[in-house]
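4.2 Preliminary Data

To establish feasibility before requesting continued support, the project team ran the inverse folding procedure on a target of 844 residues. The structure was first converted into the token representation described in Section 3, and no sequence information of any kind was made available to the design step. The complete token record follows.
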């Protein structure tokens, strides 16, 4: 391209980007900047976009999309030449969702002024991207979606990297339908990183199956294997990595897996849970060697890494998709010196910072940052668009939401909001601040919230009843909650500055497919952030958490084994213990130590050898299967527990007993005490007493409302000024992190080792009848009926309301409960409207 022409095009693109961002500003922002284009400039931009749309380079495709969509917005859809060009360009780049949005908003398909030859080109592109799902039924897909669907059909192992909004979930639904229709008796496991995602994914799967009138597919969210002979068409399990471990180690029924889908697979790089995920996948693939596997990750540079890591390179394929059907504007907002009611706006585009200019705002950008964020969100919401304000923790999210609520006294709640608020006050706590927030059009959302409350917030947001949600990093782990705007200030991932990969994952939530061409990420005071995660390469290279631990030879492993004098204050003990458990297991499997070489580099060789020598000195007499099943725990701690149980004169004194039997609470407390000693869980007697009490109430099936109410009353009796919301957050945190995660894995190991000790002592029958407290602790009930209901995906709230309505045999499958519920008069039951609706959604 001629240099003068290129410079002119660059000038016009920058000018167009400035005009586009000015249009994105809320009405309350006032700017004197004026940008106008003449017909010649518009024609030049549309023509350049058309040329770029013929390229196969991702950057060209993305720029073509950016130019034409900004032209559509600048001309308000009133320029026939732009609309005709856009219709063609969307077809060329395979962005049919964007084309649908264009046609819905701006044109009548029958009146499009495109020449016959270009119409033929559009028809040809449609034919290339059309998938036939059932006879004559066809679906038009993007280039990425079509490639993914074809690959899922032909490949045994597949790893894909794509933007957050690329439409992966839609394709996985299509593939699921294809799988269950093509063959009977399949067992498909869908792994998600958090419990928050289980209900969302299982609901999506059930909805898809229902839309296709497929009735013989079992969908389960609890790790209770379905007997092979009882599977009519297929079974789909939706698990976290921890539930997958419980599933493959189940003693009740022999599990099997035909397909494994690992969503948000990049989480393998994150801490202890990344190591658990790697262990779960390793064991699954070793025990079910013919399983088909998919790894799906957002915007990673090296998706082939998963195929190499799990030995699937010979029969695997990988690819990277960089183009998203919705794009994002990274907008930087900073203070203006001596002008508290003005901000400086810039756009980060194509690795360049474009200064838009100074604009006036209707609030002071100088007050506390919480109130600033609240005012900023409200200013944007004046356009009635959906907004996510990202927070670094639950307390911050709640504070911002409460400030927004205080500033929104005129909001008129819908009937759906009134119903949800009534549920919160009755079933959670009458003073839970979420209720007041939602009554004023804003909500907060974090991972430790009860599942039905969290999903209720998500539904209100998706359906437009509330426009603003203050969210934590749960959003990074795949929760499908897109919004027009995302507001971020100095984002963190835990205690560390947010990584570039996490920022891109979060930013990808901005912009709703089929609703808008662009989403906006408002980066507040980015120059003060602890990391410049808002800029840099779009694709990020990942490696596993265990590889990261071993980068320096495994110094943290040596630290926790006592090979150095003092443990560093900032060491992640849980991650180090999980790394130790995996390394020791791998050493037992491969005593020749060939596995060690994958971690060796020119800088860590000496330290690596010292780490391995320390591991080899650990003396453990437990079977390798137990160590494999509990790799996230230290092998020396497992051995300590084994010796403790083996030393008991009577195993009957240390066996968990049914919560319904007298003495169960005392027995649980004794086991808890032994666990804290054997696993070096450093807690005070007071904390241990509280956690034990809370765990027992939880296992017994005490309602969350009663648990929280008792805790609030107790804390206020100690200090009358105790903040109710803070008490609730603390209690929910202990429930999720100490009980539903930490105690679950400890009790799981305790029960498995106890059974082993019983078998060694010749107590065969006793080893088969140990109460599964790890299941009770995770799901919050010891009732067979409640557990079966929760296995179907029903929330604990609803399961506890329903558990006394059944009289079914002990050995019956969970799906039989569906038939009983279909005969019930749900409307006449004395339970919350939200719970009734949950049952209707499951049955309909």
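Position-by-position output of the design step:
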């Amino acid at each position: 391209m001629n240099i003068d022409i290129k410079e002119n095009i660059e000038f016009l693109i920058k000018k167009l980007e400035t005009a586009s961002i000015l249009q994105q500003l809320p009405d309350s922002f006032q700017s004197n900047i004026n940008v106008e284009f003449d017909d010649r400039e518009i024609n030049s931009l549309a023509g350049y976009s058309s040329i770029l749309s013929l390229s196969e380079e991702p950057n060209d495709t993305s720029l073509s999309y950016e130019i034409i969509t900004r032209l559509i917005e600048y001309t308000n859809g009133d320029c026939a030449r732009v609309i005709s060009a856009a219709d063609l360009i969307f077809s060329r780049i395979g962005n049919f969702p964007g084309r649908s949005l264009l046609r819905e908003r701006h044109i009548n398909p029958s009146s499009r002024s495109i020449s016959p030859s270009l119409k033929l080109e559009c028809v040809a592109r449609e034919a290339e991207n059309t998938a036939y799902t059932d006879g004559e039924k066809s679906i038009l897909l993007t280039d990425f979606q079509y490639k993914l669907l074809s690959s899922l059909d032909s490949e045994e192992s597949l790893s894909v990297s794509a933007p957050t909004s690329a439409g992966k979930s839609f394709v996985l639904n299509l593939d699921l339908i294809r799988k269950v229709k093509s063959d009977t008796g399949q067992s498909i496991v869908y792994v998600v990183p958090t419990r928050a995602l289980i209900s969302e994914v299982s609901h999506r799967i059930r909805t898809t199956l229902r839309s296709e009138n497929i009735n013989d597919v079992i969908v389960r969210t609890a790790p209770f294997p379905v007997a092979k002979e009882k599977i009519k068409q297929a079974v789909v399990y939706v698990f976290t990595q921890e539930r997958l471990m419980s599933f493959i180690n189940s003693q009740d029924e022999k599990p099997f897996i035909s397909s494994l889908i690992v969503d948000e697979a990049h989480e393998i790089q994150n801490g202890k849970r990344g190591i658990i995920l790697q262990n779960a996948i390793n064991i699954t693939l070793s025990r079910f060697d013919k399983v088909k596997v998919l790894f799906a990750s957002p915007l990673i540079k090296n998706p082939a890494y998963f195929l190499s890591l799990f030995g699937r390179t010979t029969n695997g394929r990988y690819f990277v998709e960089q183009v998203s059907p919705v794009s994002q504007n990274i907008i930087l907002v900073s203070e203006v010196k001596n002008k508290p009611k003005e901000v400086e706006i810039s756009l980060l585009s194509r690795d360049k910072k474009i200064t838009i200019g100074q604009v006036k705002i209707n609030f002071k950008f100088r007050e506390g940052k919480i109130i600033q964020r609240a005012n900023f969100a409200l200013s944007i919401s004046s356009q009635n668009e959906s907004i996510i304000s990202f927070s670094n923790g639950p307390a911050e999210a709640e504070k911002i939401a409460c400030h927004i609520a205080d500033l929104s006294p005129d909001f008129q709640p819908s009937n759906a909001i009134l119903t949800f608020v009534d549920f919160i006050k009755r079933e959670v706590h009458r003073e839970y601040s979420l209720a007041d927030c939602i009554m004023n059009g804003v909500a907060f959302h974090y991972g430790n919230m009860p599942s039905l409350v969290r999903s209720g917030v998500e539904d209100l947001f998706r359906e437009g009843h509330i426009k603003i949600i203050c969210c934590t990093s749960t959003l990074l782990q795949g929760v499908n909650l897109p919004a027009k705007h995302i507001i971020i200030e100095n984002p963190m991932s835990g205690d560390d500055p947010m990584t570039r990969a996490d920022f891109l994952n979060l930013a990808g939530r901005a912009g709703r497919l089929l609703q808008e061409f662009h989403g906006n990420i408002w980066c507040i005071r980015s120059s003060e952030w602890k990391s410049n995660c808002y800029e840099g390469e779009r694709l990020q290279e990942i490696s596993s958490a265990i590889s990261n631990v071993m980068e320096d030879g495994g110094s943290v492993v040596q630290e926790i084994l006592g090979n150095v004098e003092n443990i560093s204050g900032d060491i992640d003990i849980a991650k180090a213990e999980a790394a130790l458990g995996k390394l020791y297991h791998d050493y037992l499997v491969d005593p020749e130590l060939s596995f060690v070489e994958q971690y060796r580099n020119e800088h860590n060789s000496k330290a690596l050898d010292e780490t391995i020598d320390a591991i080899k000195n650990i003396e453990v007499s437990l079977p390798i299967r137990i160590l494999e099943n509990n790799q996230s725990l230290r092998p020396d701690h497992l051995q300590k527990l084994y010796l403790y149980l083996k030393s008991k004169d009577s195993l009957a004194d240390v066996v968990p007993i049914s919560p319904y039997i007298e003495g169960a609470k005392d027995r649980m407390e004794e086991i808890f005490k032994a666990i804290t000693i054997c696993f070096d869980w450093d807690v005070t007697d007071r904390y241990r007493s509280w956690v034990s009490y809370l765990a027992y109430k939880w296992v017994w099936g005490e309602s969350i409302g009663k648990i929280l109410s008792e805790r609030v009353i107790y804390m206020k009796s100690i200090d009358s000024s105790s903040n109710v919301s803070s008490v609730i957050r603390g209690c929910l945190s202990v429930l999720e992190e100490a009980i539903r995660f930490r105690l679950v894995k400890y009790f799981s190991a305790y029960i498995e080792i106890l059974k082993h000790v019983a078998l060694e002592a010749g107590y065969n029958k006793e080893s088969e009848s140990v109460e599964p407290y790890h299941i009770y602790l995770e799901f919050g009930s010891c009732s067979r009926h409640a557990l079966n209901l929760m296995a179907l995906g029903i929330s604990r709230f609803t399961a506890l309301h329903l558990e006394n309505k059944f009289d079914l045999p002990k050995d019956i499958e969970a799906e039989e409960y569906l038939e009983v519920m279909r005969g019930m008069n749900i409307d006449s039951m004395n339970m919350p409207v939200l719970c009734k609706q949950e049952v209707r959604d499951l049955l309909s």
